Amino acid sequence: MAGSLADLKRIKVLKDLPSPTLARIAEVAVPAHFSSGQLLFLAGEHCQAIYLLVSGHIAVYRISPEGRRQILSQIHPGEMFNVVPPFLPEPVNPASAEAITDVLVYAIRLENFQRLLSEEHDFALKLLSTFALRLQHMTALVEDLALHSVRERLARFLLDHADSGGFSGFTYDEMAERLGTVRDVIGRCLRAMEGEGILRRERGQLILLNRARLEAIALADS
Amino acid sequence: MLNHDFLEIDQEKCSLCGTCVENCPEDALAISQQVLVIEKPEACTVCGFCEETCPEGAIAIRYQIVWQQ
Q1: Is any Cβ of chain B less than 8 angstroms from the Cβ of A38?
Q2: A98-127 tens-digit pLDDT
Q3: Which residue from A minimizes the CA distance to B41?
C-alpha cells in the first residue's frame, strides 16, 4: 500500500518538498500501526527501514549491560527517525524504539531510502538539516549527563515540563529513564526538594512552589 | 494495569505479598479476590510508601508536574 500524500505532508522534513519528490517518496512509504508498548526495532539489529511518525509518540533508548534503560530522545508526530543506519558502513540500528502510545508510522525500506537519497537531491539536503538538529540535541544531552548532577537535571526537567504544560505525567521510573539514573535516586531527590519547600506531592501532582530556587539548582548555583 | 488516576498497579508484577497493604498508613489498599486494589482512593495521601516498599516494583505513582496556582 503506497503512502498517503496528506500524511507525508505532516512530516516536517518533507512538507516543503516539490510534489514530484513527495510522490516518489509516497510510492515507497508503507503505513504501519503499532500499539502502545510495542517494539518497532532493536538496537544492534540490521536496519530494515527508516520511519516517519504521523501520530502518537515513540521513545528511542539504549539499555546498559546492567539492564538500565536510558531514553535518548522522544519522537513526536511529524518527525523522521532511524535515519542514521543508511549512512553507516554497517547499517545497524544504533538504538531501540518503542511505541509510548498507539502510533501510525510510515516505513521506507533501507534500499528504497538509499535510492531516494541518490536520486532526489532536495530530499537529501532536507535530511542534512535533520541530522544537524539531532546532533545538536545529542550534544546537549551528553553535556547534561556528563556535567550536571541528578538533582540539577531533575530541577531542569521539572521546570521544563511544568512550563510546557503538556504531557500526561511521569512515574519515578520514567523520570529516571530520561535523566540517566534509577528511581530510588529520583525519590530521594524529590523528598529532599519537598523538605526544602521547593515542591509538594499531592494526589498525583508534583506542585512546584519556588521557581527561583529550581532555576538556581538547575544552573548548579545552589 | 489498574489505574486510579495517579496510582498504577501492574497486576502481572504483583506477587500479592501484602507489604503495601500492611504499610499503607491510611489503609487505602487491600487484596480482594487475589487482586491488589485501591479500596479507599479518597484516603490516599500519595505518601509513596507503597511504591517504595513494593519488592516487585508493581506500584507506580504517576505525577503531573504543575506550578502552584
Answers
A1: no
A2: 998 999 999 999 999 999 999 999 999 988
A3: A203
Q: Is the pTM of this model over 0.80?
A: no
Q: Which residues in chain B are closer than 8 Å to A168, comparing Cβ atoms? A: 62, 64
Residues of B in contact with A204 (CB under 8 A): 5-7, 46, 61-64
| Per-residue CA distances from A102 to A24, A105, A161, B69 (Å) | 27, 10, 22, 33
Question: Which of A173, A202, A203 is nearest residue B60 as measured by Cβ atoms?
Answer: A173
Contacts of A202 in chain B (CB under 8 A): 46
d(CA A147, CA A69): 20
Instruction: Give yes or no for a contact between B29 and B19, defined as CB atoms under 8 angstroms apart.
Output: no
Is residue A61 a contact partner of residue A96, using CB atoms and an 8 Å limit? yes
pLDDT of B35-63, one tens digit each?
Answer: 999 898 888 888 888 988 888 889 998 89
**Are A162 and B67 a contacting pair at CB < 8 A?**
yes
Amino acid present at B38: I
Tell me the residue ranges of DSSP E strands in chain A: 29-34, 39-41, 49-55, 58-63, 69-75, 80-81, 96-99, 103-109, 199-202, 205-208
Residue B44, chain A, CB below 8 Å: the answer is yes
Minimal-distance CA residue of chain B relative to A168: B64
Please answer whether residues A201 and B63 qualify as being in contact, where contact means their C-beta atoms are separated by less than 8 angstroms. Answer: yes
Placement of cell 532526489 in the chain: A120
Q: Are B6 and B61 in contact (CB under 8 A)?
A: yes
